[in-house]
C-alpha cells in the first residue's frame, strides 16, 4: 500500500465508476483486484439475467465504501483489527467488534454521501 502523511488519504476519493474504482484499488489495495473483478462479473451477470441494475449498483456502492476506507490507512487498520477480533474473540468481544465495524462503515457511507446501511 502507498504511504501518506499522518492522517491524510492516500488518494482522493474516486468517482463511483467501475474504471476509477479499479484504478484506485490497483493503487491502494492491489491484492483486492481479483475479488473486485470476480464480484463485478457476478454483478454484471445478475443484472443481465434479471434485467435489473440493482446488482451493479450494490457492487459499486460496496466498492466505493471499500476504497473510502482503504485510502485512509488508520481506518483500514482499525477495520482489519476489529474484523480479526470478531473472528477470534469471545461473544462479548465479537459484539464490541460488530459495533465498531458498523461505526466505521457508517462513517464511510456518510463520508461519500451514501445512505446509512
Radius of gyration: 15 Å
Low-confidence stretches: none
The dominant shape is: globular
* Percent strand: under 5%
User: If you average the pLDDT, what whole number results?
Assistant: 92
Q: Largest sheet, described in full?
A: none
Give the class from helix and strand content and strand pairing: mainly alpha
What is the helix tally? 5
Number of domains: 2
**Ends distance:** 27 Å
Describe this structure in words.
The structure is a single chain. The chain is mainly α. The protein has two domains: 58 residues, no CATH class; 45 residues. It has five helices and no strands. The protein is globular. The mean pLDDT is 92. InterPro entries: DUF6247.
Report a brief summary of the structure.
By secondary structure, the chain is an all-alpha fold. The protein contains five helices and no strands. The chain folds into two domains: 14-71, no CATH class; 73-117.
Task: Itemize the secondary structure elements and their pairings.
Elements: H1 18-28, H2 33-50, H3 54-70, H4 73-88, H5 91-111
Main features:
117 residues; mainly alpha; globular; DUF6247
Amino acid at each position: 500500500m502507498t504511504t501518506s502523511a499522518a492522517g491524510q488519504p492516500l488518494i482522493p476519493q474516486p468517482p463511483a465508476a467501475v474504471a476509477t474504482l479499479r484504478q484506485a484499488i490497483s493503487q491502494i489495495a492491489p491484492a483486492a483486484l481479483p475479488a473486485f473483478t470476480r464480484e463485478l462479473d457476478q454483478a454484471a451477470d445478475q443484472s443481465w439475467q434479471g434485467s435489473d441494475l440493482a446488482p451493479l449498483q450494490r457492487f459499486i456502492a460496496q466498492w466505493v465504501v471499500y476504497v473510502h476506507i482503504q485510502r485512509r490507512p488508520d481506518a483500514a487498520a482499525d477495520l482489519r483489527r476489529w474484523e480479526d477480533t470478531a473472528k477470534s474473540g469471545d461473544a462479548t468481544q465479537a459484539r464490541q467488534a460488530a459495533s465498531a465495524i458498523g461505526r466505521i462503515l457508517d462513517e464511510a457511507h456518510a463520508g461519500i454521501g451514501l445512505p446509512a446501511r
